Every structure is written in structure tokens, then in C-alpha cells.
Amino acid sequence: MKKILLAFSVLLFFASCMDNDGDVQENGQFPLGNWTISESHENGFSLTRTESLPENNSGFSFRNNGKMTSRAMAGWCGTPPVAYADYAGNWSNTNGALRLNMGFWGGRNIQEWKVISSNDTGDIVRVELVSSEIIQD
């Protein structure tokens, strides 16, 4: 019993020393976690929380250190079959607006989002796209 307790204590010690500032918190507040675009609207879209980003769909993964990943089309052609790729970026929340600076196949996309509504559980969020600026490389 003492050996099990000692082993557990050592394991707990090492686990507490690990740096997890960049981890995605699945059950955290929006926008933390993984989100897939589930529906398009006139001025924005709806996001649905997912366990991971799907292979063949657009989505976003927000980490609590301000880093993010955008999964988007890998090229300019949208004719099926469409290939997707992951692009690094960062995000911030200022005065209730999300500001995203993320890569895409042709450069950078800087967007500002405003949350319009969410369901009771917070796993579906409707977002208005306030502004979008494309910077081509």
C-alpha cells in the first residue's frame, strides 16, 4: 500500500509540473475548445463544439494562451473534392469582440467576431462577422 501511495504521489508531482498553458479546454468558456462551422447565415455563421476538428470541414481550435488553429481549404479551388489544411493564428477577446489573426493558403485573414447567441449548454454559438481583412503574401 505504501508503494502505491508513493508511486501515486510521484506521478501527481510530475503531472503538476507540466506546462499546459496552450491546452485546449473542451469544457471552457467560448471560444476555448474545438468548433466546427455548422451553418452559414447572412452576416455570419453558427459554430458547434466538437471533440476534435473534423478532417473534411472548416473549423477552429482555440487554446487558452491566445493561440489558435484554423482548419480551412488548402487552396483557392472549391470544386469537390476539397482538401483542408491547418493554419496557425492567434486570438484575443476585447470588449466582447473576438479578434482573430489566422493564416490561410494565400496569406493572413484578420477577422472580428461578435457572439449573437448561444444555446443553453453553450455548445452551439451564433457569430456575426463584424469585419474581415485579407492580407495576401
Automatic annotation (TrEMBL):
Signal peptide range in chain numbering: 1-19
Protein origin, superkingdom: Bacteria
Keywords, in A-Z order: Signal
PROSITE patterns from the UniProt entry: PROKAR_LIPOPROTEIN
Presence of keyword Signal: yes
Name recorded for this polypeptide: Lipocalin-like domain-containing protein
